[in-house]
Amino acid sequence: MFNNYFTIAVRNFLRNKTFSVINVLGLSIGISAALVMFLIVYYEFSFDKFVPDRDRVYRVVLDAKFSGTEGHSAGLPAPLGSAIENEVTGVEKTVPVFQFQGDGTAKVEVATATPGKPVIYKKQPNVVFTNPQYFSLLGYSWIVGSPQAGMQDPFSVVLTESRAKQYFPGIPVTDVIGKQITYNGVTTTVAGVVKDLNKTTAFTADQFISLATIAKTNLQDNFMMTVWDDWMAYSQLYIKLSEGTNPQATEAQLKVLLNKYNKKANKDANNTMSFHLQPLDDIHFNGLYQSVGGRVANKLTLYGLLAIAAFLLLLGCINFINLTTAQATKRAKEIGIRKTMGSSRKQLVLQFLSETLFITVIATVISVALIPLLLKMFTDFIPPGLHFDLFNQPKLILFLLILTIAVSFLSGLYPALILSGYKPVSVLKGQAFNDSGQTRNAWVRKTLTVSQFVIAQFFIIATLMVSKQINYSMNADLGFKKDAILTFETPRDTVKTHGQKLLHEIQSIPEVEIAASGFLSPADLGVAFTNISYPEKKDIVANVQIRWGDPNYLNVYGIKLLAGRNVKPSDSNKELIINETYAKILGFKKPEEALNKYLNLNSKDLPIVGIMQDFHDQSFRASIGPIAFAGNNGTIYHVRLKPNNANGHVWQSAIAKMEKAYKQMYPEEDFKYSFFDETISKMYQSEQNTARLLKWASGLAIFISCLGLLGLVIYITNTRTKEIGIRKILGASVATIVSILSRDFMRLVILAFLIAAPIAWWASYKWLQDFVYRTPMSWWVFALSGLVMIVLAVITLGIQTIKAAVANPVKSLRTE
């Protein structure tokens, strides 16, 4: 029986090649989208699922309030770990993790057989200082050595197998014990090798220096190992609670610890501090406590991806239903004969479902073949570490199996019930489709078509609104210049030795218009807040964004002064310029009133010598806050280039000369630069990715929807063939017939717009609320969306209606 079903499915597939290809194409798009989204969502939700007893593992994080401004940090006071180990009950494991400061990388020198000639690896990532409990917390497997032997003594290091092979090629990993490796001047001895985790995890370290090493080096001061009232992002702490321990009880003990060692932590309602236990499963999704070099996924974005995949899959199914019912006239007599020969309705339903399954399997195979290509096309959306390997991902195979069955059932059930329900007598008399446009099933097909266009129109409006906001953000007046400016950084602690010399060399390059040294750019991906007080009004203590640079800094970026003067050259903070927002916070109605007033920064009273115009220091999601600019040199260089020529040689020449000057002073360092406008663009990377995804979704939704509309118009023209012929004989023109056939369909498209518009308006409005500065909800966005959909619908309708209208009426009237 099933063999017969398969044979009939193949015959029908080959007999109706055009419709078969359209069906496969529509389903392939939906299934491909579902597969890609499943890969992304499954990957993101699989982080750290391998950790033993992960429900008892927490990261200790910090919640604080400074002068009324809330702050959150994964960085902690360095001595907290040892205090928990000694004074807090109910904690099974305490695991401090410290990273090298700066960019978190280390210069690694591996000793070789030739004295004085180590192999050097620049900027090696994933180096941490930790204790033996780190390995049992994550369940590492040891190849050689043990936590107790390898991590108790200072100047010991444990490597992963991959790092051991990289540093000591050609040597068995079991023989690397005792080898020496130097990290940023700290010489260590290899005491163990563990297998790589090769898991989806936020724990990416692959070189583990014993925590005891810190106390024996100058890192003791760098990491502030005895300081309770300060902390850095490089210091993190994980704990594993004992079975039955209540996290709230542990947090209460941490509060006692904080009050014991930092009595000023909670001095008033506007200045508070507390430790919080963050569950392991929350780390990958909570941006409040993002760690240095860590990546955070957004659950709402992931749910949005699933929704888009579901919509595209639904569109494919609706498209299949419409096209299948459109072909019903060709199957009517076959169904009547089969019923007359004794086929039951159940058998016919199974037959039609089998045909649907056959088409779905073909679509699934095509979708799987397309996945590697799609992953390359959507690289910006693909998380690092995600890969597609069907035969080594059993859960993906299970998902494909369930998806194929579900799509076959959803797509094929309605057509199967409709087709199998025809009465054989009516079918064989040619009466099965009389007045079918008014039958009780007509509203189902129309509802499905309207649903398709509602989804398509929603995507179009959403795409236009997201693109409009991005365009508004990128082209609005930010309060500074952003074009033709590049920045690069020099090693720390070299300002006095090389800073001014390098700046002079860069300024003398003919292609450079102006250059300055300082701190972060006016708007940067990072933030730098500091507490500044106003001695005349001690109740005003603002959390201020701080920038500093030499006098040319403001000129590079074209930041305007509203009152006062620029800072004078200095190698330390002696003068301040504040923005107009800060001046208003301090109580000054006019900018010039703030001049020559003093602010306290780092226990030094500094005069206000200028008021600068407000500029956007963060993305448009955040409002402009208080900003202070201090006159001081720095390690970040800001260079504005002269206008480029058509072939780009001006900028290429300038960059080459800057690199040459840089290399003369820092021969071992890599010259890395970035253009400032690219930094601004990265602030809206998430929105740009969303816009790209919506453009693809809109295009696919429109394409599938138009296929569904084509299926419905084919169905209607097939059932109204005789009517068309009679109208032509009675003198109706082609335009009249096209108008009659298209009228109902255009009503469906307009109805879809009327439904989609308020939904899209609400969704766009909610999305825009995340931006303090946002584009208006313009009427033309909705009008353009409706116009685009109407034009596409007219084109789609014209393909079939014109063909039907110009057909020979004699042929249609002869049809029985």
What do these coordinates show?
The protein is α+β, with helices and mostly antiparallel strands. 49% of the residues lie in helices and 17% in strands. The protein folds into 4 domains: 1-47 and 297-434, no CATH class; 54-286, no CATH class; 439-471 and 684-816, no CATH class; 491-668, no CATH class. Helix 11 packs parallel to helix 22 and helix 22 runs parallel beside helix 25. The longest helix is centred in the last third of the chain and has 35 residues, at 685-719. It starts with a helix and ends with a helix. The mean pLDDT is 83.
Write the layout of secondary structure elements.
Elements: H1 2-15, H2 17-45, E1 57-66, E2 69-73, H3 80-87, E3 91-99, E4 106-110, E5 119-124, E6 127-130, H4 133-138, E7 142-144, H5 147-151, E8 156-160, H6 161-167, E9 180-183, E10 186-194, E11 207-210, H7 212-215, H8 219-222, E12 235-241, H9 247-261, E13 272-279, H10 280-283, H11 299-326, H12 328-340, H13 345-377, H14 394-420, H15 424-428, H16 442-475, E14 485-489, H17 495-507, E15 512-518, E16 529-533, E17 541-549, H18 552-557, E18 561-564, E19 576-579, H19 580-585, E20 598-601, E21 604-612, E22 627-631, E23 636-641, H20 649-665, E24 673-675, H21 676-682, H22 685-719, H23 721-729, H24 734-768, H25 779-805, H26 809-814
Parallel strand pairs: 6-11, 8-10, 17-22, 19-21
Antiparallel strand pairs: 1-2, 1-12, 1-13, 3-6, 3-12, 4-5, 4-9, 7-10, 8-11, 9-10, 14-23, 14-24, 15-23, 16-17, 16-20, 18-21, 19-22, 20-21
Helix pairs in contact: 1-13, 2-11, 2-13, 2-14, 11-14, 11-16, 11-22, 13-14, 16-22, 16-24, 16-25, 17-20, 22-25, 24-25
